[in-house]
Amino acid sequence: MTQDANVNQSQAAIIWRQFRKRKLAVMCAGIIVALMTVSIWAPFLAHDRPLYFFGTNRFEFREAVRTLREVVGRLPVTTPGASTSPADEKTTATLWKSIVLQVRLLKTALPADRHTWLDQWVADVRAAQTEATGAAKLKDLQRTLRKELGGNDVPLVSKASYPVLASLTWSDVFFLTWNLVLLSAPVWTRVVGRVIPAERDRRRWWTEFAVWWIVPGLAAAVWWMVVPSRIDRTPYKTGVLAAETDAATATVTYETVMWPPVPYSIDDDNLAWKNAPPALFSDPPAERSPLGKWDGAHWLGTDELGRDVLCRMLWGGRVSLSVGIVAVVIYVVIGIVVGALAGYYRGIIDLLVSRVIEVVICFPAFFLILTIVAFVGPNLFNIMIVIGLTGWTGIARLVRGEFLRLVDQEFVLAGKALGYSPSRLIFRHVLPNAMAPVLVSATFGVAGAILTESALSFLGLGISVPTPSWGGILSSGRDAIFRAPWMIWFPGLAIFITITSYNLVGEALRDASDPRLRGSR
Fold first, then answer.
1. What is the DSSP string of 75-123?
2. Which of 43, 293, 309, 519 has the largest CB neighbor count within 10 A?
């Protein structure tokens, strides 16, 4: 592509075109996307609940009946003409929301001929609230519900259920949707480019921003409003096939069932299988449930408590990768703001910021993080904040240097002559031209943050048990290095591959953003 053609392209497009010429960096970027995708989709890859089953769930039905009886017993009774406080009205509204939810759950499990009885029972509960003898009637209605629906012989209808899907939170939905947007980016960006061909058109920028962030945000908001969050304690692995003789009273009855590829949870322990070798390198007998109808294999072995290492690796990737990305976002934001102010205004502001940066740099970063974590406590949020608050100095120095170079350029002087405000000059004119080295440094910073979290978890100051992380798994394998060396191999390999990939991507971005190196490849 000629020099004249580059004029019509944005800086980001030119960097991306140069980056794609570096095949090793593109492969590493693919590895990073693959690791992120696997971690985000961990609920569908490693879980002790079925992805789908068609059958009955008597445990869930019994829990709904028990919850409904308890909620009805807490309903306040209001006699006609008596005044009620706002607190009582709020409590009543909350309890009735729970009643509606439990009744809806019961209706999906009961035959259609029992729905009329259940609707009449709910109407009787509502009427008893406003009667003088309402408390006694509510107790009678509780006993009636237990008599009618509390036994093990209540006939249930088979239905399709998606336990893993029901366990998702709004944040899971956000990142799952965002990941789908990322994986489909080659398709939808091309469509947007055809509809809005001008690359510098502001409509194109807003369209891409909406697809990247607003669509996942809307999906998460809809999920939060529509799908109620609840704890599912159903022992799915004790289910039996519908053809079994005890299917009428079984906890869960499966006519069709589909398990995740790794049918274990992060705390699904079995001391009989502690330190089991990986099924990749040996052929141990398949583990079976007490009913003998569910088989599984530990592909990367188990730890000292009999927990599946592959499951913990998949879920641990969520922690390790998210710590790196979130921590870097925090210190990039801080570094950009501080460096921009120092580089644009100069003078006393630049002097003060430079002295603060020098003071912070004097302290060894890792030991400063160790000290802070020892005081505030080791958890995921604290580690993100601490790494973010201690790593901003490098970004601030980069941004300050870029601003010192750009602030006297002609386009900035022209903006000042036209009366542009300092905030407009900083964020709309100078900062976009200073972001290339910041992005390169941020890429290296993600690798450093992942390594820092892994080191903290290895020292016991990282993520709290039972939440897994790669560093935590590595630390738990420290005492079993001869009995279970696979607990060192796999998390260590994951950390090595991730950090190497981020570093190679950062080097490629550095070369691609340097105009002097664009013609070298």
1. PPP--TT----HHHHHHHHHHHHHHHHHHHHHHHHS-GGGHHHHHHHHH
2. 309
472-491 pLDDT, tens digit per residue, is: 888 888 777 778 888 889 98
How would residue 467 be classed by pLDDT, with cut points 50, 70 and 90? confident
Q: Cβ distance 491 to 474 under 8 Å? A: yes
Residues 6+ apart with CB under 8 A from 255: 53, 54, 55, 158, 241, 242
Torsion of CA 231, 236, 241, 242, to 10 degrees: -10
Count how many Cα atoms sit within 13 Å of the Cα of residue 279 in the half-sphere of its side chain.
13
Which residues lie below 8 Å from residue 384, measured CB to CB, with a gap of 6+? Answer: 322, 323, 326, 327, 330
Tell me the C-alpha distance between 427 and 438, whole Å.
14
Give the E-state strand segments of 264-392 in sequence order. 287-288, 295-296
Go through the chain and tell me how many residues it has: 521
Is pLDDT above 70 for 256?
yes
**Per-residue model confidence (pLDDT) at position 79:** 65
Give the containing element (helix H, strand E) for 257. Answer: strand 252-258
Q: What is the mean pLDDT of residues 348-377?
A: 83
Inter-residue contact 425 to 416 (CB < 8 Å): yes
CA 409 to chain centre: 43
Rounded to 5 degrees, what are φ and ψ at 296? -155, 165
Mean pLDDT, residues 334-358 taken together = 89
pTM, rounded to two decimals: 0.83
Q: Can you tell me the mean pLDDT for 105-131?
A: 89
Q: Give CA–CA dist 86/91, Å, rounded.
A: 9
